[in-house]
């Protein structure tokens, strides 16, 4: 069984593969995806991280996430001898995905630490 973030990522990949979303198109916003899938913001963020890691999406700070070329070989739309849009899925996309995963992990650790402290403050007679 797929987790929610995997379902969201696969649905977006399928939209991209089928041509429903084309390179350069804006991906649905976090709010739209949360409403569409009944998902948490964390699930949507994880789905977007997967898309970026796999080279399907790229972020533009202050503008959102956009469809990227899924592989560099498909990037042949410029006929003027200039390189087309920068293919993603390389180092920058992987670093961005890792930074997001690290931030999520740190948030989870902070939450767990607060829970442990609350349990310890409530009494230490209970066994774990």
Can you describe what's shown?
This protein is mainly alpha-helical. The protein has four helices and two strands. The chain has helices at residues 4-18, 30-37, 41-53, 91-122, and strands at 57-60, 64-67. It has a two-stranded antiparallel ribbon. Helix 2 (30-37) packs across helix 3. The model is unreliable at 72-88 (pLDDT under 50).
Topology:
Elements: H1 4-18, H2 30-37, H3 41-53, E1 57-60, E2 64-67, H4 91-122
Antiparallel strand pairs: 1-2
Helix pairs in contact: 1-3, 2-3, 3-4
Low-confidence blocks of residues = 72-88
Mean pLDDT: 78
- C-alpha Rg, in Å? 19 Å
Number of DSSP strand runs: 2
Backbone structural class: mainly alpha
Residues in helices, as a percent range: 40-55%
For the record, give the distance between the C-alpha atoms at the N and C termini, rounded to a whole number: 30 Å
The major sheet is characterized as:
2 strands, antiparallel
- Summed up, the helix count is 4
Query: Which strand-content bin applies to the residues?
Result: 5-15%
| Overall form | elongated
> Strand arrangement, largest sheet?
1-2
Compressed to H and E, one letter per element, the order equals HHHEEH
